[in-house]
Amino acid sequence: MSGVAGAAGPLLGGAAVDAAGRRRVFWINVPIAAVVAALMLRQFMEVDRLRRQDPKLLSPWPLPGQDGGASADKGARMSDHGPEIDTSVSHVARIWNYWLGGKDNYPVDREVGDQILELLPDVARLARASRLFLNRAVWHMAREVGIRQFIDIGTGLPTVDNTHEVAQRAAPESRIVYVDNDPLVLAHAQALLTSTPEGATAYIDADLREPELILSGAAATLDFTRPIGLTLMGILEFITDDDEAQSIVRRLLAALPSGSHFAMYDGTNVIHGAASDRIVELWNAEGNAGLVLRSPERIRRFFDGLELLEPGVVSVTRWRPEVTVGEPPEEVDAFCGMGRKP
């Protein structure tokens, strides 16, 4: 791997085994933004490897309510086989899990995660702030609004205070459908995402670009005549065309009844400006699935036709923080909002 010509910056970490069989960490001089871009690239390489290893990973679990031992009440079961997880290679979802205080990670993830934090301490703060927004949003919908059904698209690896844990803490009878298409996420979810006896959890392997598939699968667990909470946390930024992204949101919301709520956040360049733009530039230059940063104004359009709740579209740290003493919380480059369907 090589750095960007003529650019001075911090060091990017990697690892190799020396002649004596000892694992050595090595460093390459690259701009700070490339640290994040290179790490994200590793994730997609690992996902591609797993899908090539076993084509059945395209749909490892039956949809809720289908044959194979799954039921809407107990959630879909994982198939007997599973992907072989390479624990010698760091994965961004497991590093994210580590930063959030989760246990679903390996030494290589913690090592690389610590190295990144030395260079980019704001990354962990962004991860935690985004997760806390999810927690507050779900808690508001469940406790304050009385919603008992949720669709969480772009779940990520299970960690502390998952959507069903927050919702069922407020109302044990809550029913949650998780949606993700990363085989690493699906490989870990069954063991960790468990429901209360009164409620239900289900898992769907689907892409955000397949809203009808998501909705039909969710219908096996949820009652679409009653309000539903929909969350899209940090996933719409991978739909780079605004018209397409807004169309997906509209199609999802069209199936939900009046009183349903929609919460989301997306990456921005409001706080770090050119540095955030550089990350996206490097990421997209590698030929990966496109990534876009949106302004708060563009994020606001996802709530067209909805009643946008106060305080509107703001940094995730400033959406109804639990405790505010003195100055408002420091902003991070992820802006969010919540809307109610009339």
What does the model show?
With 342 residues, the chain is α/β, with parallel strands linked by helices. It has a single domain (11-340), classed as 3-Layer(aba) Sandwich (Rossmann fold). Helix content is 36%, strand content 16%. The protein contains 10 helices and 10 strands. The strands form 2 sheets. Strands 3, 4, 5, 6, 7, 8, 9 and 10 form an 8-stranded mixed β-sheet that branches. The longest helix is centred in the middle third of the chain and has 25 residues, at 121-145. Residues 1-35, 37-48 and 54-81 have low confidence and may be disordered.
What are the defining features of this structure?
eight-stranded mixed β-sheet, alpha/beta, two-stranded antiparallel ribbon, globular
How far apart lie the N and C ends? Answer: 52 Å
Number of strands: 10
Our estimate of the beta-strand percent is 15-25%
Unreliable residue stretches: 1-35, 37-48, 54-81
**What is the CATH third-level topology name?**
Rossmann fold
CATH homologous superfamily designation? Vaccinia Virus protein VP39
Topology:
Layout: E1 11-17, E2 23-29, H1 32-53, H2 92-99, H3 107-119, H4 121-145, E3 149-153, H5 163-170, E4 175-180, H6 183-192, E5 200-205, H7 211-218, E6 229-233, H8 242-254, E7 261-267, H9 274-285, H10 296-300, E8 307-308, E9 314-315, E10 334-340
Parallel strand pairs: 3-4, 3-6, 4-5, 6-7
Antiparallel strand pairs: 1-2, 7-10, 8-10, 9-10
Quick recap of the structure?
Helix content is 36%, strand content 16%. It is built from ten helices and ten strands. Helix 4 packs parallel to helix 5.
